[in-house]
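Ticket #4471: complex job returned nothing on first submit. Input attached below:
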Amino acid sequence: MLELRDFSCGYGAFQAVHGLNLKLRPGAITGLLGPNGAGKSSTLMCVAGHVQQQGGAMLFEGRDISGLPATERVRLGLAISPEGRRLFKDLSVQDNLRVGGMVQPAKVFAHDRDRVLALFPRLAERLDSLAGNLSGGEQQMLAIGRALMTRPRLLMIDELSLGLMPKVIDLCYLALDTLRAEGLTVLLVEQNTERVLKVADDICVLESGRSVWQGTAAEARQDPSLTEAYLGLH
Ligand SMILES: Nc1ncnc2c1ncn2[C@@H]1O[C@H](COP(=O)(O)OP(=O)(O)OP(=O)(O)O)[C@@H](O)[C@H]1O
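Support reply: We reran it on our side without changes. The output follows.
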């Protein structure tokens, strides 16, 4: 699905991620964990085409996407719900979804929007509200919904649960289960380690821009050195 080979990325002379090798299994949820500043967001944003790749290869369904503009990556099936959500706050919910759907033919808009609304019924009640007036949870649902409107095969979500109420977090994770059952591949950055260990299939832990642990979530749950040293769990 997505393979990073000896991948590095960063900002000008600064390298945020060094020599990362990571393979995402199709249809699996991979949790990307690690402390603040480890390079998680930089990795996602670089795969999406918004941060400079500094070395290595980035293969999406076998094709090297290094150097492709972000819009082209979206057309190939890569979507991101970025950190901070970055919604168009002065546009309505409906219009934010429309922006996501712009890479698809206009005739599929209503169908795709209704799929998003079935996944997040709360958005159906707020279709005409400005995105800036939504609650944090609704904004997160809209950011994911906008990404889904592009019909991705890989969905990357940065900080799914940050600042959200537990009940809303449950709804978002329920939606992820549904999407995985439909075959979507997900790369998830999340501070809530316990949640990720429950929901993810695979785990990659970054520290100071390097991968320090990779394996299945089941292995991660049973590895005390990992849970104590890197994930702060006991
Ligand atoms: N726009 C930027 N310009 C320069 N350096 C940046 C920029 N964004 C991030 N960095 C640096 O890159 C490194 C990795 O940051 P990144 O945001 O990817 O980490 P993270 O693991 O996502 O952490 P967090 O959980 O705090 O978002 C950090 O040292 C950070 O200061």
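Residues 1-77+153-161+183-234 form a domain with the Rossmann fold fold (CATH 3.40.50.300). Closing as resolved unless it happens again.
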